[in-house]
Amino acid sequence: MIYHDIHPARFLARPNRFIAQVELDGRVETVHVKNTGRCRELLLPGCTVYLEGRANPARKTRYDLVAVEKVRPGLPPLFINMDAQAPNKVFAQWMEAGQGEALGLPRPTLLRPEKTWGNSRFDFYWELSEAGRSRQGFVEVKGCTLEENGLALFPDAPTQRGVKHLRELMACRAAGYEAAVCVVIQMTGMTAFSPNDRTHPEFGAALREAAAAGVKVLAVECAAAPCSLTMTRPVPVDLSRREP
User: How many CB atoms lie within 10 A of CB 102?
Assistant: First the structure.
């Protein structure tokens, strides 16, 4: 996916989860943050952030904060896309291009976002007809912006909604559908992905239970740049790592 009208700025403060104050071209600007997560390890005073200009006179803010350079002592900054809407967009592009086959996901004949099944709504539903055989499946997409020493971790805050999604995927699998959760890592250079048991042990337990029930647990990192985000390569999933 492509961003337009990108501006580097210096992060100052985050009064609430929806807005931030930055220094842009020598002035203080209030901007919309396109990620309601905590992101405390990313949005540090003085760090470089990237804004997308939005030409909409009805908006209260002129810019969206979409990316950040993570400060790493003794290492170069790590560029991380923070746009919470981006993972679903790049996943759809990736699937439609047939690149999901690298993870065992087919190139679908139908890919439908926000599909309701029973009492659940999943990020994607797909269908494929091949050799007279029909396949159907559901995928939940999770965006990942947290890393520690090259290890991608999710979630960065407790997420009961995430646990609910995993339970629902297990129900789909039991009903005969294919099911997967795909963690879209919004940065590059990761060695592996693991659940963040330290922050939310219940999510880690549910993810391992889902994997044992036949739900595919997938992780793909991205090439992240100020003007773009593109899924690039699968990253190993390590469910054996546990941290109290």
Answer: 12
Residue 242, SS3?
A: coil
Give the pair of three-digit tokens for residue 226: 């100020």
Taking only the tens place, the pLDDT of each residue in 34-84 is 998 888 899 999 999 999 998 888 888 999 999 999 988 888 899 999 999
Which tokens sit at 113?
């976002």
Measuring CA to CA, how many Å separate 134 from each of 109, 123, 139, 221? 10, 20, 17, 30
Query: Tokens in use for 176?
Result: 């005969």
Tokens of 47: 């760090």
**Inter-residue contact 22 to 12 (CB < 8 Å):** yes
- Dist CA 158 CA 168 (whole Å): 18
The three-class DSSP label of residue 71 is strand
Contacts of 95 (CB under 8 A, 6+ apart): 105, 107, 108, 111, 124, 126
DSSP string, 132-174: TEEEEEEEEEEEE-EEETTEEEE-SS--HHHHHHHHHHHHHHH
Rounded CA-CA distance 50/66 in Å is: 6
> What's the CA gap between 71 and 190, in Å, rounded?
16
The one-character DSSP state at 34 is: S
CA distance 235 to 53: 32
Q: Tell me phi and psi for residue 155, to 5 degrees.
A: -90, 170
**Judging by DSSP bridges, how do beta strands 216-225 and 178-185 pair with one another?**
parallel
Structure tokens at 166: 């995993």
Sign of the torsion formed by the C-alpha atoms of 54, 55, 58 and 62: positive
- Name the pTM for this structure: 0.94
